[in-house]
Amino acid sequence: MRSYKFSRYLISLITITVGLVISPQIYSINNEVPVSGAGAHFSWTIMNDLQDKLEATTGNKIKLFGRESMLGAGCNAGIKHALSKPENGNTFGLVCCPLSNTEVDKKKLRVFPLALEPILILTHSTNPVNDLSSQQVRDIFSGKITNWKEVGGDDMAIVVVTRLHCKKRPGHWKTILPNAKAFTQKRMNVKSAADMVNRISSFKGSFGHTGSAWLFNPDDKIKTLTVDGFKPTAKNLKTKNYPYYRQLSAVTSLKPSSDVLNVITQAQKLLQGSITAARYEILPLGVNEK
Amino acid sequence: MLTLTTYRSRLVTYIAALLIFLVLTLVYSYWSTRDTLLQEADRSMNQATNLLTGQIEATRNELRRYARIVRDDLQVKEYMFIVVNVSNETDPLVNLYQKQFGWLPVDRSVLLKPDGEVLIGDNNATFVDRVRRHTSTLSERTFIFKGEQHLELVSSTPIYYRDELIGHVALSYSFSPEKLLALRNKSGGHIFVIEDEYVRASTVSESLGKRFHLDGAHINISDDSYRVQPIFMPDIDPGTPELWFGLSENELINNLTAQARTTLMMIIIGCISIISLGIIVIRNFSQPLSSLMTLTEQIASGELPQLGKTVAKNEIESLANQFADMLHSLREKQHEIDRVHQQLEELATTDSLTGLYNRRYLQDLFPKIEAQVRRDDKVLGVTLCDLDNFKKINDRYGHLAGDECLKHFSWLMKKYLRENDYVIRMGGEEFLILSLADGSNGHLTMAEKIRTAIQNDRINFEDTEIKMTVSCGIALSNKQNLKTLNVLLTQADAALYEAKSEGRNRVKLSQDSVDIFYNQQSA
Q1: How far is CA A191 from the centre of its chain?
Q2: Which chain B residue shows the shortest CA-CA distance from A196?
Q3: Contact (Cβ atoms closer than 8 angstroms) between residue A157 and residue B88
Q4: Contacting residues of B for A127, CB less than 8 Å apart
Q5: Beta pairing partners, B474
Q6: What is the tens place of the pLDDT at every residue in A40-99?
Q7: Rounded Cα gap, residues B324 and B342, in angstroms
Q8: Distance of alpha carbon B191 from alpha carbon B204, whole angstroms
Q9: Residue A25's pLDDT band (cuts 50, 70, 90)
Q10: How far is A161 from chain B (nearest CA, A)?
Q11: Which of A48, A268, B24, B472 has the fewest CB atoms below 10 angstroms from its CB?
Q12: Strand B379-387 relative to strand B357-358: parallel, antiparallel, unpaired?
């Protein structure tokens, strides 16, 4: 009986001691509000690549929602996330299109351009055509050219696949054709970049587009065409030899936290001459705000 | 009129009644079941037909649902749009369809261009032709038609993309014999596919190619008769064979036969069980009871048979043991009665004072003696002895002394007589000796010995010596001159009277026995 009471006291003592030791740690963990970002895949890819370095340089814990999450994917999702916690301003969004001034003002956003991303012109990997002129690209997308034979390829109908998202925002696919109506109606318009890759891989006569920051799978039957003899690279963007591109940006509320600003600024800095920029052939835009 | 007086007969009657009840119950059960089976056959016909109709309807709805799934798939629509409007590259569509809808449980599937050209799917000409005919209406359709091999249920629906008709999807479910068999397994019975009054397909292989001639609601195929009923099929194309459901009457009869066999088997088993039970009951109850009854009858008839006791295991054995105890008790009582009876008999035939036979015994004894005379050709001597002046002895010495004299004389006679001689006290001081001898001399000699013995004897009574003499009269009888007891007693009495008259203490032969005496003397 005495032994049982002693054991009970001992267990109570150990529990209280352990509690006293770990409670400050639990408190500190709970108290730490990480900087979180979400949004368009292409911008997410860049931030994801930089995450470790960003956390090291800023001392902030960063949570990213993108390709593998329900929160990520899409410019609108990015903007929504940036505005999701106005009380602490610790969130930012990722967008793959330049935002119009109207939208920025209306939604009370701050935009931090990260880089320019070439828009890749894609076809099936078995297609013998490797290069098109920028006009041929536009003619194909507009439906003026409907057979690969017309551009030096096989006698095969061209299956146009488009992803004409963010229609009210400038830039992006509008660097190819100014509006959706200019694209041929005899096309497939997909909802996601993944669908785009899937469609291009399916049809041998396919023709489509996506950003260079897309993470292709090895079994994708995809080939990137050169335009006017230029590859979709940062260098060709900088020299303006490659015509199709878009702007990847981070967005915040009007009053982002200092941590968020620090993270975004560091990202802009880190992109300069980074491996990430080289890997995805994106053109960093330096530390700036629109 | 049967009377149930014994338990055995009652038991047999009860068992017989039970058997009759069992047989009647089972026979009634058989006939009820038979009626129920026949009624159930009709009911199950309707149910099965409804079930089959319902299954066909369910298959139709399922097929329609699948067609809508294909119709509403955006990717398929896009691919079809491209194939119809842009490129004749159908492989991506085929691959997509296989990937997306290869799992659909249908027998045929086809995607048609608006002009009816097959994009992907089954190239079966009949099927495609029939689908084309129905898709011309540009609306969702389900229909049944006769395919090249089997009846086919088809659901087709147009596919629109961006408000433009880009083709049709048609899915079919074929009623192959295997599927008919599956339908039949769900509903029981048989299914017939009838075209132009001939059986084109059926779950009854013998019926294939046979004429489907309706006789009321029956058809006869081979040696079997079937109750048949059509299965309603919606949206059936003209000229398409019909589906009929049938129940084999042979199978029904087989079921009834099986039921009858079962009933018969139950009757046999029930009868055997009841009879066995009856035998066991009779053996264990009635038989011991009968034995006890036989025993009781023996007892009633005066017998007291031996009955061994056993270790009682039941009431009847206990009763038998009680009977054994009762018998033992009765035997003891009987022995007691016999002994008393013997005593009474002895008392009735014996003189209590002298221990000699009394006169009553003479009546029983004489016929035996007479028979012996007749049989052995002996001479019977009847000697009547009377103590002389016995009254004076009584008067002088008292009755006790007289009694002592009588007892002494009796003892003396027994002493001098042979074993086969009889001495009877006739009353008072008068005694009768019956003796048998080969000749007549012995009788007189024997009487003389007695007379002499008593004459020479003295009787001591209370320190007084009493002297006595006796007179004897003898009558003789033999085979040739057989006399009755009365005659002999009369003659012996006459001789005694003569002896008394001549002065007592002497032996006299009856004058009527002189002839016998002389004739038998030499013997």
Answers
A1: 15
A2: B75
A3: yes
A4: none
A5: B383, B509
A6: 888 888 899 999 999 999 998 998 887 665 555 688 888 988 998 777 788 999 998 889
A7: 26
A8: 8
A9: very low
A10: 10
A11: B24
A12: unpaired
Q: How far apart are CA B226 and CA A22, in angstroms?
A: 85
Q: Closest approach of chain B CAs to the CA of A95, in angstroms?
A: 27
Tens digit of each residue's pLDDT (9 = 90 or more) over B393-422:
999 999 999 999 999 999 999 999 988 899
Q: What is the ipTM of this complex?
A: 0.76
> Is residue B226 within 8 Å of B247, Cβ to Cβ?
yes
B263: enclosing H helix or E strand: helix B249-281
| Cα separation values, B123 from A165, B131, B460, Å | 40, 11, 162
CA A150, CA A140: separation in Å to the nearest integer? 10
pLDDT at A260 (0 to 100) = 92
Instruction: Give the Cα separation of A201 and B89 in Å (integer).
Output: 13
Q: What global pTM score does this model have?
A: 0.57
Q: Where are the alpha helices (DSSP H) in chain A?
A: 2-31, 41-58, 75-82, 101-107, 134-142, 193-202, 234-238, 258-271, 275-280
Count of residues for chain A?
290
Return the CA Rg of chain B: 64
pLDDT, mean over chain B: 86
Which residue type occupies B119? Answer: L
Q: Is B197 left (phi over 0), alpha (psi -120 to 50) or beta?
A: left
Long-range contacts, stretch A179-185, CB < 8 angstroms, 24+ apart: A182/A141, A182/A142, A183/A141, A183/A142, A183/A143, A184/A141, A184/A142, A184/A143, A184/A146, A184/A160, A185/A143, A185/B162
Identify whether the C-beta of residue A67 lies closer than 8 Å to the C-beta of residue A44.
yes
DSSP state of B285: I
Start-end ranges of CATH 3.40.190.10 in chain A? 35-117+245-284, 118-238
> What are the C-alpha distances in Å from A279 to residues A41, A117, A119, A274?
16, 12, 15, 9
- A221 in Cβ contact with A132 (< 8 Å): no
Give phi and psi for B301, each to the nearest 5: -85, 5
Is the distance from CB of B345 to CB of B361 less than 8 angstroms?
A: no
Q: What's the topology of domain A118-238?
A: D-Maltodextrin-Binding Protein; domain 2 (3.40.190)
CB count in 10 Å sphere of residue A105: 10
In chain B, what residues touch A159 (CB-CB under 8 Å)?
A: 82, 86-87, 89
Dihedral angle at the C-alpha atoms of A277, A280, A281, A286, nearest 10 degrees?
Answer: -30
Tokens representing residue A135 in the block: 């006009």
The 10 Å CB-count burial string (b at 16+, else e) for B386-419 is bbbebeebbeebeeebbebbbbbbbebbeeebee
Residue B96 and residue B98: Cα distance in Å, rounded? 5
Q: What is the pLDDT of residue A289?
A: 80
Report whether CATH 3.40.50.720 matches the domain A35-117+245-284: no
List Cβ neighbours of A245 (8 Å cut-off, separation of 6 or more). Answer: A116, A117, A118, A119, A171, A175, A237, A283
Other Cβ atoms within 10 Å of B296 Cβ, number:
12
Q: Identify whether the C-beta of residue A79 lies closer than 8 Å to the C-beta of residue A254.
A: no
Task: Look at residues A67, A43, A47 and name the one whose alpha carbon lies nearest to residue A166.
Answer: A43
Instruction: Report the residue of chain B nearest A155, measured CA to CA.
Output: B87
Q: Mind telling me how many Å the CA of B96 is from chain A's nearest CA?
A: 9
| The two three-digit tokens of residue B325, written as one number | 């105890």
Active-site residues of B, by number, are 429
A35 close to B (CB below 8 A): no
Is A159's CB within 8 Å of B86's CB? Answer: yes
Structure tokens given for B180: 């008919």
Q: Which segments of B72-215 does DSSP mark as H helices, in order?
A: 74-85, 91-101, 125-135, 177-187
Token pair 């004429």 in the structure block, residue:
B211
